[in-house]
Amino acid sequence: MDVKSPLVVVLGTGGTIAGTGAGPDDVAYQAAQLSVGQLLQAVPGLSGVALEARQVAQVDSKDMDWSVWQALARQVQAALAREDVGAVVITHGTDTLEETAYLLHRLLDVDKPVVLTAAMRAATSAQADGPRNLGDAVRVAERAARQGQSGVVVVMAGVIWPGCAVRKAHSWHIDAFDGGGCEPLGRVADDGVVLDAMPWVPPGGAGWSWLDRAPPPRVEILTSHAGADGRVVEALLAQDAKAGDPVKGLVVACTGHGTIHQGLTRALEKAEQRGIQVWRSSRVARGGVQCREGDRWPAAGSLTPAQARVALMLDLLGVPPAHLAG
Fold first, then answer.
1. Is there a single domain that holds both residue 224 and residue 144?
2. Do residues 190 and 221 both lie within one domain?
3. Which end of the chain is less enclosed by CB atoms within 10 A, N or C?
4. pLDDT, tens digit, 9 for 90 and up, residues 40-75
């Protein structure tokens, strides 16, 4: 690979960044309408960058599923295996970005960078942030390839976040993402200059073949709250007796530092007796759940409930363990 001119492969999956509407309204739009090639055409200042675009999927990321992850992983693997490719950039929707980023972080097994980006405004919005975010992501990827960095990061609103820790923290702000307590890895200035502050988190290295196993283990997320009596768990157990894809794991979005309502606890104990694995995360925005002596169920560290679900799915598949906080 010519390190002076690393080729950046840009993979499109849809999302708001590819969304269009009838006018400049920020709300009335339909996601996943433009191709990744069209998105790149809207980004100024990339004429000197070696780029190759490929459309992997065209979905609103709220509808992300295992099959799309499989297709994306195959394309990432194929691209990074090429000697002429220095990095991969992925355009994605914001709703499940933290799940895909965490998944790729766990699986990435080569010393090359993978950079995800998205947008909070549709491409036709008067405040469209997609072109800036995509341009920043390409520049971060190219620079990382030149410097021999590896790992998975997310670039949004001029900030570089570790893929194992990023999460959506606001439902509509342009700068909607943070690291849940983790500091940014760097920033991208308005002129496109990449300013690194911290080393990238090493990738998990598990390998992509784990995603080829189907069907994936079924893992659901539950929330502990005032009055949680566990009937949702009992309904799942009753359905499992009839269904062909029984629940294998449950992630509880707990109150506080991993606490669970006593009514829900009793139902989870029944689920555990049937061989269902239970993990605890937190519905609180910061801090997560750390392991403490006497805990009955594992703590998911700083992972969000959605990320913890991905982690538990990988654990049930037999993927080599990683620190639960990423």
1. no
2. no
3. N
4. 999 988 988 999 999 999 999 999 999 999 999 999
Can you tell me whether residue 64 is helix, strand or coil? coil
C-beta atoms surrounding 103 within 10 Å: 26
Pairing status of strand 85-91 against strand 51-59: unpaired
CATH number at residue 39: 3.40.50.1170
Inter-axis angle of helices 97-107 and 66-80, nearest 10:
50
CA distances 131 to 38, 115, 123, 149, 208, Å, are 11, 15, 8, 24, 30
The whole domain housing 304 covers: 215-317
Give the dihedral sign, CA 171/135/325/231.
Answer: positive
Measured in whole angstroms, the distance separating CA 145 from the mean position of its chain's CA atoms is 21
Kind of pairing between the strands at 247-254 and 7-14: unpaired
Q: Could you give the residue numbers annotated as active site?
A: 16
Q: Which of 165, 187, 190 is nearest to 178 (CA)?
A: 165
Q: Full-prediction pTM beyond 0.85?
A: yes
Please indicate, yes or no, whether residues 259 and 112 belong to a single structural domain of this protein.
no
Determine the 3-state secondary structure of 282 from DSSP: strand
